[in-house]
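Researcher: I'd like a candidate sequence for this fold, 263 residues long. If you have to choose between options at a position, lean toward the conservative one.
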């Protein structure tokens, strides 16, 4: 059986860094690299070589995940890594997005993660790893990133509990909680909303986050946090009341909820 890795959102940003790291693992024969745009996936294959199997698919679409599940079941493969990385944010107020756009974020950031896990776990042997990308935004409620932070809180809790449930199968599940990372996420997130979060403290690069996540997954940790700054915020969110954490967040972002625009 061919040993494979499956990575969603593989064509850019953090996902691309996971592709790079897994490509150097000799035992992994193929990296099933998922994203919506075929051209970007073809570019990835050209740059990263033959191990890359481009799969153009929208992970927010349940029907496409079902089709993917059938393809996986018909292939003679074992999934050694599942990296649920595809996700996006919108920096805005709750009413800046339509019902459809709001629910699409939940479909990708939450339902996609759950569905991909359910489809892949039956094909994962002992010693394999699930890496789900949450965020520092999972630590506390974040006004003006309300929906995004709530989806990431789900991913964090779901993954840690899943890690316990998978112990009898010898599979680990790790929730990765990065702070701000320099990627294309911001192109999609900044919709020019009147009140929006635009101050990005402690920004890092995706290679560092991916490397720490792989090390933590290999060690069987259920949560992966990179950098002193994000660890500090994690501890703060555990010790301080959430009302206070939200006030500090708004101060940092220069947003007064009672005014019409952010400063
Ligand atoms: N950047 C940050 O500051 C930051 C911080 C914490 C956590 N994160 C998390 O890290 C993960 C990766 O984000 P990134 O920063 O690397 O963003 P990115 O550079 O925008 O990459 C997103 C990737 O996901 C793919 N994608 C988007 N929508 C998709 C869909 N519906 N179905 C399948 N693939 C889809 C994109 O390709 P296509 O457009 O071709 O589909 C792309 O490959 C996300 O879960 C994000 O929430 C990011």
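Model: Candidate sequence:
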């Amino acid at each position: 059986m061919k040993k494979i890795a499956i990575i969603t959102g593989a064509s850019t940003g953090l996902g691309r860094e996971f592709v790079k790291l897994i490509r150097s693992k000799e035992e992994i024969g193929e990296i099933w690299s998922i994203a919506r745009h075929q051209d970007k996936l073809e570019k990835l294959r050209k740059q990263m070589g033959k191990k890359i199997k481009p799969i153009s698919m929208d992970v927010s679409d349940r029907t496409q995940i079902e089709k993917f599940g059938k393809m996986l079941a018909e292939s003679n493969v074992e999934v050694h890594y599942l990296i649920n990385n595809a996700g996006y944010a919108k920096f805005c107020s709750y009413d800046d997005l339509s019902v459809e756009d709001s629910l699409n974020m939940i479909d990708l950031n939450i339902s996609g993660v759950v569905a991909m896990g359910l489809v892949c776990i039956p094909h994962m042997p002992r010693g394999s790893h699930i890496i789900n990308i949450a965020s520092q935004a999972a630590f506390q409620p974040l006004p003006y990133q309300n929906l995004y932070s709530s989806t990431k809180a789900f991913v964090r809790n779901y993954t840690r509990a899943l890690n316990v449930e998978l112990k009898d199968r010898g599979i680990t599940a790790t929730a990765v909680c990065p702070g701000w990372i320099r990627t294309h996420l911001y192109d999609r997130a900044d919709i020019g909303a009147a009140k929006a979060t635009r101050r990005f403290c402690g920004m890092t690069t995706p290679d560092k986050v991916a490397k720490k996540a792989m090390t933590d997954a290999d060690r069987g940790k259920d949560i992966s946090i990179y950098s002193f700054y994000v660890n500090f915020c994690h501890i703060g969110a555990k010790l301080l009341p959430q009302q206070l954490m939200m006030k500090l967040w708004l101060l940092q972002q220069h947003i007064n909820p009672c005014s019409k625009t952010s400063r």
